[in-house]
Amino acid sequence: MNIVCLDLEGVLVPEIWIAFAKESGIEVLKKTTRDEPDYDKLMKWRLGILKENGLGLKEIQQTIAKIDPLPGAKEFLDELRALTQVVIISDTFTEFAKPLMEKLGYPTIFCNSLTVAENGEITDYNMRVEQSKLTTVKALQSIGFETIAAGDSFNDLDMIKASKAGFLFRSPASIKESNPDLPAFEEYDEFLEAIKKAL
Length: 199
Fold this sequence. Notes:
The chain is of the alpha/beta class and 199 residues long. It has helices spanning 16-24, 39-52, 57-64, 73-83, 94-103, 132-142, 157-161, 173-178, 188-198, and strands spanning 2-6, 85-93, 109-116, 122-126, 146-151, 165-169, 184-185. α3 packs parallel to α5 (94-103) and α4 (73-83) packs parallel to α9.
């Protein structure tokens, strides 16, 4: 039995932190897991920037409310979900993902959570498990699923490589060049065809 495991940001929706960087005018917040492989280091740095600027969950959620899925993403996801089981495995947070899941037709998502103070300051983040994407793929395999995985960033590579088939979708050139063995796609129609062949 197959299950497709997809990253969220960069694959189905725009990068939340890039959108927030533009909205807030804090250009340095454009740094993502495409640039920094160490997620813990990246998140601690982000929370420090938010604190310095007096920004919290409310301001980020206001930006997220304006974000729509990437053009064609919902149709791609609907067609894929009609063919097989699909789960989104993301390093984002429940507090960020909820409005985006509504716009995508409520697919299943496994993600993390935030610790938020009464004044709205994000004081910490809570990972569901260590190496959440790889750990989740291995757990799915342990209960009888064969996984097919896709993503765009450094933090997706382990789950992609641990799966029976894996793909890069709209990855930066640096990740594609360092992983020439992974099929890379830019458009949903060819991406969907590749997944169908792997099912």
